[in-house]
Amino acid sequence: MQVEQQKNQLAINTSKLNLWYGTFQALFDIDLKIKQGIITSMIGPSGCGKSTFLRTMNRINERLDYVRIEGKVDIMGENIFAPEVEILQVRKQVGMVFQRPNPLPISIRENILFGHSIHTAGKTSKTEAEEIVESALQQVLLWDKVKDRLDLKATALSLEEQQKLCIARLLPVKPSVLLMDEPCSALDPKGTEAVEELLWELRGKYTILIVTHNMAQARRASEECIFMLMGKVVEHRETGEMFLTPEHKETADYIEGRYG
Ligand SMILES: Nc1ncnc2c1ncn2[C@@H]1O[C@H](COP(=O)(O)OP(=O)(O)OP(=O)(O)O)[C@@H](O)[C@H]1O
Ligand SMILES: [Mg+2]
Questions:
Q1: Which of 21, 22, 86, 166 has its CB surrounded by the most CB atoms within 10 Å?
Q2: Got the DSSP string for 93-141?
Q3: Where does the pLDDT of residue 1 fall: very low under 50, low under 70, confident under 90, or very high at 90 and above?
Q4: Which of 17, 18, 19, 21 maximizes ligand 1 atoms within 8 Å of its Cβ, making it the mutation to test the pocket?
């Protein structure tokens, strides 16, 4: 019931979003409405702007001084570009995971507490810290595996475990949206399956937007799917429908592997 209610609300709502890298335009009039609490996949050939779109959602693109953005982005009903909004606040609301797991070369425990401490200025008791670590690792299905070795360096874990840890460390600050940019591309099939399983566990509690080049993964692991081409959204529909009866020829060509 709660998930049903959430579905009617938007986690991400963009209107006329345009982005330029210098004089090169990478996103054109993106109007996307991404529902809360579900998994949405984003597909499209290399260079079509998937990562650019994701990076705009948590404002990391703005690190580059030659990026220019026009248009509106509301996340959980709030305009992320409003002058009174702080970037740190946006990052708290919107967590991101990348292609290659990138844990810090410190212990598992410290990895989980690191992001949290930035947002709380380090005011956490020892008991509280233990609870945070356990809860985050439980949510990513890693707790039983690592509970006896929380002081182990995170980089000593398998790639699958590292990627789960990278998801876990986002959770203590209670984000609403998790962005995942090809999170399984460095993993073997077993690791991929484990991370997909995890996505289903997290669904409902978080809104997940996952970029993937793997059509089977988009089909299996998402409820809605967005197809992009050359900086534009071509189609955004329920995943099953899009794969069964794509509305546009470009979508059909892409999902049938005729290009890119
Ligand atoms: N930092 C940057 N500076 C300049 N141009 C960039 C930058 N990042 C991306 N681009 C360009 O913007 C376009 C979109 O790139 P983007 O990385 O968003 O595509 P993508 O869909 O994620 O591709 P891939 O599937 O290969 O990851 C490409 O033409 C790319 O060359
Ligand atoms: Mg990309």
A1: 166
A2: HEEEE-SS----SSBHHHHHHHHHHHHHTT---HHHHHHHHHHHHHHTT
A3: very low
A4: 21
Residue range 193-217, pLDDT digits in tens = 999 999 999 999 999 999 999 999 9
Q: What is the pLDDT of residue 258?
A: 75
Confirm if 195 and 208 have CB atoms less than 8 A apart: no
CA of 179 to the centre of ligand 2 (A): 12
Query: CB of 49 closer than 6 A to ligand 1?
Result: yes
| Domains of the chain and CATH, by start | 2-102+177-255 (3.40.50.300)
Task: Give me ligand 1 centre to Cα 219, in Å.
Answer: 24
- Distance CA(143)–CA(81), nearest Å, equals 37
Please give the Cα distance from 11 to 96 (Å, whole number). 15
55 lines ligand 1 (CB under 6 A): no
Alpha-carbon distance of 175 to 91, in angstroms, equals 8
Ligand 1 pocket member 77 (CB < 6 A): no
Q: What is the pLDDT of residues 32-47, one digit of tens each?
A: 999 999 999 999 999 9
Contact 227, 242 (CB under 8 A): yes
The length of the chain, given as a count of residues: 260
Atom 3, ligand 1: residue with shortest CA distance: 21
List the residue whose alpha carbon is closest to atom 4 of ligand 1. Answer: 21
